[in-house]
Amino acid sequence: MTTLVLLSDLVFESNDKLDQRIRSLFNNEQLSIGYIPSCSDPERKYFEHTRRYYTQIGIDNIQYYDLDLEYEESTFSSIFECDAIHLSGGNTFYFLSLLQKRNVLGLLCSYVKSGGILIGVSAGSILTTPTIDIAGYGEDADENNVDLKDMQALGLVDFEFATHWDGSEDTLNSLREYTRVNRTAVYACQDGGGLVMDGESVELYGHVRLVDYRESGSVDE
Predict the structure, then answer these.
(1) Cβ distance 85 to 119 under 8 Å?
(2) Is the distance from CB of 34 to CB of 65 less than 8 angstroms?
(3) pTM (2 decimals)?
(4) Among 22, 87, 148, 185, which one has the highest count of C-beta atoms within 10 angstroms of its own C-beta?
(5) Quick one: angle between helices 92-101 and 105-113, nearest 10?
């Protein structure tokens, strides 16, 4: 069974229902989450922000696993013993290049299919989808500074995820064009909102809008 959490951003004053739902995904009390940054975080600035968020919802054991400058192959494999794996925000192209370089994409897919929980924030959320093409789309697109050619991501869902939606109809119209050209569906999500996939069901929290070249719908909680 696939269990995923896709967040636009990690906001402390976010959605209580979403926070409670994330906490409810875990069955046991002694939880551990393995954190993978999109690039090395030597001062642990972004890691600390994430750790404080999880502490707020009652999860204290957060472990840092670097794929970049501090990568240790011999110790990285222990991340798959954690109850959940957190993929951070950052530059999506660089993050995917690290996952490819360290041959981690297949391992993450196997982890999820074996019952592990995957939580993505921004770039991390986009990585759960079939392709990261959307990361390079629009005015605030990520820069492909690593000249990445293969945009294929984890493919754990059959839709794409647009983060940091500003709530405007103009952005939705732009995404409608994207879905028409690419024959796909996109969930546009504002910061503070998110999507939880528990098995086959897709649950939306906060301001999330589905843009599909075949149909459209929305939810605002």
Answers:
(1) yes
(2) yes
(3) 0.95
(4) 87
(5) 90
CA 90 to chain centre: 11
Tell me, what amino acid is at 106?
Answer: G
Selection from 185, 168, 166 nearest residue 176 by Cα: 185
114, 163, 196 from 8: Cα distances, Å: 25, 5, 12
pLDDT tens digits for range 79-126: 999 999 999 999 999 999 999 999 999 999 999 999 999 999 999 999
Contacts of 157 (CB under 8 A, 6+ apart): 2, 4, 128, 129, 130, 197
List pLDDT tens digits, range 119-151: 999 999 999 999 999 999 988 899 999 999 999
Please list the residues that pair with 186 across neighbouring strands. Answer: 160, 211
**């492909």: which residue's tokens?**
144
**Order of all β-strands in the sheet with 117-121:** 61-64, 32-36, 84-87, 117-121, 3-7, 194-198, 201-205
